[in-house]
Amino acid sequence: MQLYNKLSAKERAELIDKAGKNRLTLSFYQYAKIGNPQVFRDHLFITWNALDVLGRIYVAHEGINGQLSLPADRFNEFKTHLDTITFLKDIRLNIAVGQDNKSFLKLKVKVRNKIVADGLNDDTFDVTNKGVHVGAEQFNNLIEDEKTVLVDMRNHYESEIGHFKNAMTPDVDTFRESLDIIEDDLKTHKEDKNLVMYCTGGIRCEKASAYFKHKGFKNVYQLEGGIIEYTRQVKEDNLENKFLGQNFVFDDRRAERISDDVIANCHQCGNPFDVHTNCANAACHLLFIQCDTCKEAMENCCSNECMEINRLPYEAQKELRKGQGNSNDIFKKGRSKALKFK
Ligand SMILES: [Zn+2]
Ligand SMILES: [Zn+2]
């Protein structure tokens, strides 16, 4: 029985084109006690592989976190399968705003220690004592309250291309770092302010809100379903959209445009621009913002050094990379001094 992905991304892309079917991209998560993650993982792989599901799914003793795509005409079968799993019955599925048939090209279901690498020791606080979940309308009202401090629980490369008006956006590379920065900034307001938080799909706030309550914050709120669900509700209920720019997402689409505002700038020339790219030098692969003009002038590289390396023949580049390990992660979140406007 096949338990692992066997096709290359290229082979898969060709199959998707050939099938000519529309695919849906969606995400969901659930904290739940899973006794044997490996067995559960295998079960999901076998069932979902047969449904032509592609994506990145993490399973742990503490629950499941999935981002995936599937043919739209198999959605009902997929939903029916989820409903057979007690803790996934009627779960909210965050359906992506912009659809791209190639958002995922492999099915990877992995067993992890945690479903989010949050750097927290869960034994030190009550993870079930969460903040109050609020929907889009209540969130909109809450963030207009002068007693409210709105914090973005995502990393700098996410919030730089889009965030809520007046949100505090910690300049961090990891979730763990942001917790201390936020606590320190608000240490004298633990009781008199509303701490309102949001992230992409809501999962990071599940732990963050409990953590801040443990740290003594009295009024903690979290945006239910994150920016993805907020956007859906705003559209459906005709509410005012208070999110500016693009929502960074962790698949090959990289971002969903939520409003026409461009709040970022090209890291090389400083002109308004909000689309991330990866440095073309395979040994660097830095995630950064580069406008079309700079992309052409810099040959899609983040620095002159990278441009020089990228011009070398493939074999010579490979020689240079020896012992450095492979960097295929498109979300490498490095920073570089070569980028003037970063
Ligand atoms: Zn530029
Ligand atoms: Zn580079």
Automatic annotation (TrEMBL):
NCBIfam families: PRK00142.1-1. GO terms for biological process: tRNA modification. It comes from the Bacteria. Its EC number is 1.14.-.-. Catalyzes oxygen-dependent 5-hydroxyuridine (ho5U) modification at position 34 in tRNAs, the first step in 5-carboxymethoxyuridine (cmo5U) biosynthesis. May be part of an alternate pathway, which is able to bypass cmo5U biogenesis in a subset of tRNAs under aerobic conditions. It holds the Pfam family UPF0176_N. It catalyses: uridine(34) in tRNA + AH2 + O2 = 5-hydroxyuridine(34) in tRNA + A + H2O. SMART domains: RHOD. Residues 144-239 form the Rhodanese domain. Keywords: Oxidoreductase, Transferase, tRNA processing. The lineage of its organism: Bacteria, Pseudomonadati, Bacteroidota, Flavobacteriia, Flavobacteriales. This is tRNA uridine(34) hydroxylase. Coiled coil: none annotated. Signal peptide: none annotated. GO terms for molecular function: oxidoreductase activity, acting on paired donors, with incorporation or reduction of molecular oxygen; transferase activity. Belongs to the TrhO family. It comes from Flavivirga rizhaonensis.
